[in-house]
Amino acid sequence: IVLTQSPGTLSVSPGERVTLSCRASQTVSSRYLAWYQQKPGQSPRLLIYGASSRATGIPDRFAGSGSGTDFTLTISRLEPEDFAVYYCQQYGAASITFGPLTFGQGTRLEMK
Amino acid sequence: EVQLVESGGGWVQPGRSLRLSCAASGFTLDDYTVHWVRQAPGKGLEWVAGINYNGGNFAYADSVKGRFTISRDDAKNSVYLQMSGLRAEDTALYYCVKDRAMITATYLESWGQGTSVTVSS
């Protein structure tokens, strides 16, 4: 399954609401899609799993939604610390056949 | 606190081998699937390999199949990635990552800081 994220880069201001898109080339079964945040010089961090469940400690301004082939990550009010690269990852097939896991190419949020 | 610490990276010539290690603490490694995920300089994330809790299930990305081998030693609470036939395109930061699941591969809960591998003549 190929994941395509859009846009590649988004220039936004703190306080804005943003929506990031992740589109799959085939249906992602059981909404098995996750989102990660990676800040410069840091390891990725899990934000969302199961398309819409927030990981431990993730603020509620992060919300995931979608099913089938179209998924979104919405950040309701951008904080300065949210400027980072965001990746989606599917695990629908991997949950059955053990691999592969696939990532989208990432969306970079940059400050306007 | 869950911690994953990678080691073994470095500079290596094309065609040579390298073994990466991942030491886990704060949890029992043999309760979880563990993966290696890499990130080439300035690029995105690429899943490399994964192994389930008892080593009975494992898989590799097509780009490394036949060259890399993932293994685990639960007595040492560690996972390894043996890399052979290294190529310039294997140059990346290699992350050891703990899966949420035990038997299958799902989402990636905890990430190490990574160990850097550079393949160059």
What is the compact description of this entry?
In chain A, the strands form 2 sheets. In chain A, strands 2, 4, 5, 6, 9, 10 and 11 form a 7-stranded mixed β-sheet that branches. Chain A is 4% helix and 47% strand. Chain A has 112 residues and is mostly beta strands.
Structure description:
The complex is a heterodimer of chains A (112) and B (121). Chain A has 112 residues and is mostly beta strands. Chain A has 1 helix and 11 strands, in the order E-E-E-E-E-E-E-E-E-H-E-E. In chain A, strand 5 (45-49) and strand 6 (53-54) form a beta hairpin. Helix content of chain B is 0%, strand content 50%. In chain B, strands 2, 4, 5, 6, 9, 10 and 11 form a 7-stranded mixed β-sheet that branches. In chain B, strands 1-3-8-7 form a 4-stranded antiparallel β-sheet, with no helix packed on it. The A-B interface holds A 32, 34, 36, 38, 43-46, 49-50, 55, 85, 87, 89, 91, 94-106 and B 35, 37, 44-47, 50, 52, 57-62, 95, 100-101, 104-114.
Question: Features of this protein?
Answer:
heterodimer; A: four-stranded antiparallel beta sheet; 1 helix; B: 121 residues; mainly beta
Q: Secondary structure elements and their pairing?
A:
The complex is a heterodimer of chains A (112) and B (121).
Chain A: E1 3-6, E2 9-12, E3 18-24, E4 33-38, E5 45-49, E6 53-54, E7 62-67, E8 70-75, E9 85-90, H1 94-97, E10 102-103, E11 107-111
Chain B: E1 3-7, E2 10-12, E3 18-25, E4 34-39, E5 45-51, E6 58-60, E7 68-73, E8 78-83, E9 92-99, E10 108-111, E11 115-119
Parallel strand pairs in B: 2-11
Antiparallel strand pairs in B: 1-3, 3-8, 4-5, 4-9, 5-6, 7-8, 9-10, 9-11
